[in-house]
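Lecture notes, continued. The same structure-token format from the folding unit now serves as the input rather than the output. Read the line below as a description of shape only.
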């Protein structure tokens, strides 16, 4: 059997920032052991990050008839990491009109990702 491959991650679950290690079998990529976590959340994060990493998407979209030209938005749930750029590119074509309320869905199922983008602040009309 070949030697295990160790991949390191920094847990972002809390300010402690535990240093996580995931051992995987090189042939099958199966996880053999997870170390370095101080709580269950850290172990789950290591497995998620190793097998299917996700990111919350935060960006802005164009808005008309508002005080500011851009509206800050974020995804309503973490998106698959490999979809983040695709989602951002799709949002370049989104243009909304004020007024907008914090939490309003600005774009649904962006690029087929299953992720909705929501406004993160009120933007009154002018
Ligand atoms: S493993 Fe737990 S205690 Fe350590 S950083 Fe992650 S959430 Fe915090």
């Amino acid at each position: 059997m070949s030697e295990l491959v160790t991949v390191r991650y920094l847990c972002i679950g809390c300010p402690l920032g535990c240093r996580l290690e995931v051992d995987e079998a090189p042939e099958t990529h199966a996880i053999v052991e997870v170390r370095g976590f101080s709580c269950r959340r850290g172990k789950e994060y290591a497995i998620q990050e190793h097998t299917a990493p996700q990111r919350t998407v935060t960006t802005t979209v164009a808005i008309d008839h508002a005080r500011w030209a851009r509206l800050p938005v974020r995804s309503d749930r973490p998106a698959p990491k490999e979809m983040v750029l695709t989602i951002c590119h799709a949002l370049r074509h989104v243009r909304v009109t004020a007024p907008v309320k914090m939490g309003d869905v600005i774009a649904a199922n962006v690029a087929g990702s299953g992720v909705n983008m929501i406004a993160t602040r009120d933007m009154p009309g002018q």
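Point for the exam: The chain has a mean pLDDT of 96.
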